Amino acid sequence: MDKTHANSTCSNRPDLRGEINWIPFDAAAFVGSSLRFVSGDPEGNRFRVSYYLDSTQHLKAKVWFGPETEGPPGHAHGGAMAAVVDEVLGLAAWAAGYSIVVGNLSVSFRNMLPLHKVVSVETKVVSAEGRKIMVHGRIYCEKTTYAVGECLCITIQPKNINIR
Ligand SMILES: CCCCCCCCCCCC(=O)SCCNC(=O)CCNC(=O)[C@H](O)C(C)(C)COP(=O)(O)OP(=O)(O)OC[C@H]1O[C@@H](n2cnc3c(N)ncnc32)[C@H](O)[C@@H]1OP(=O)(O)O
C-alpha cells in the first residue's frame, strides 16, 4: 500500500497515515515546537498525532489515544479528548491564517473512546468576526462520533507570542 495513504478503516494499532488527498501538515514548523502536551511525543504512550490538510485546506488529524489517556476503565479520559479538540481546533485557526489562543471551548462527549484506538479529527473555521474566530470540529471514526467541539479563538498580536 502507498505509505502516505491509508484506507479509512479504524485500527487498534497506531497507523496514523492520512486518507487519500490529505497532505501532511507540519504543525511544529508552522507554530513552533511548543505543542508538546498533545502532539509532542510521537513515540509516547499518551497521544500520537499526525496532522494533514485535506483537499479543501481544512485541517485534519489522526490521533492515537494511548494507555496514558485512560479515564473510565479501558477508555479515554474526557479531559484527554478535550485536550485533543483544543489543540486541533486551535491549530486549524492558525492553519487558516489567524494568530490565536483559545478563549472558550465547548466539548460534547458522545461516545466512550476505547484506548489504543486511532481516530480522526475534522475541523472547519465557520466564522471570523473581528478578533473572534469560531472553529467547529469532531473526533470520529467511521460512523461513530466520540466528541464534538466548538472553539472560540481570539486573535492576538504575533509579537506577544514566543514561537520556538
Ligand atoms: C505560541 C504559539 C501558539 C501556537 C498555537 C497552536 C494552536 C493552539 C493550540 C492550543 C490552544 C490553547 O490551548 S491556547 C491556551 C489556552 N488559552 C488561553 O490560555 C487563553 C487565556 N486568555 C487570554 O489570554 C485572553 O483572555 C484572550 C487573549 C483570549 C483575550 O484577551 P484580550 O486580548 O485582552 O481581549 P479581550 O478584550 O478580553 O477580548 C477580545 C474580544 O474577544 C471576546 N472574548 C475574549 N475572551 C472570550 C471568551 N472566553 N469567551 C467569549 N468571548 C471572549 C471579548 O468579549 C472581546 O469581544 P469584543 O468586545 O471585541 O466583541
Q: What would you say about this model in short?
A:
The protein has 164 residues and is α+β, with helices and mostly antiparallel strands. The chain is built from three helices and seven strands, in the order βααββαββββ. Helices cover 16% and strands 37% of the residues.
List the helices and strands and how they pair.
Layout (H helix, E strand, L loop, with lengths): L22 E2 L2 H5 L4 H4 L7 E7 L5 E7 L12 H18 L4 E10 L7 E13 L2 E10 L2 E12 L9
Antiparallel strand pairs: 1-2, 2-3, 3-5, 4-7, 5-6, 6-7
The site of dodecyl-COA has 21 residues, from helix 3, strand 4 and strand 7.
Family: Belongs to the THEM4/THEM5 thioesterase family.
EC number: 3.1.2.2
Main location: membrane
Describe the structure.
It contains 3 helices and 7 strands, in the order βααββαββββ. It has 164 residues and is α+β, with helices and mostly antiparallel strands. The chain has one domain (23-160): Hotdog Thioesterase (Thiol Ester Dehydrase, Chain A, Roll). It has a 7-stranded antiparallel beta sheet with strand order 1-2-3-5-6-7-4, with helices on one face. The relative contact order is 0.19. Residues 1-12 have low confidence and may be disordered. The structure holds dodecyl-COA (DCC). Dodecyl-COA (DCC) is lined by residues 31-32, 34-35, 86-87, 90-91, 94, 101-104, 130-132, 152, 154, 156, 161, 163.
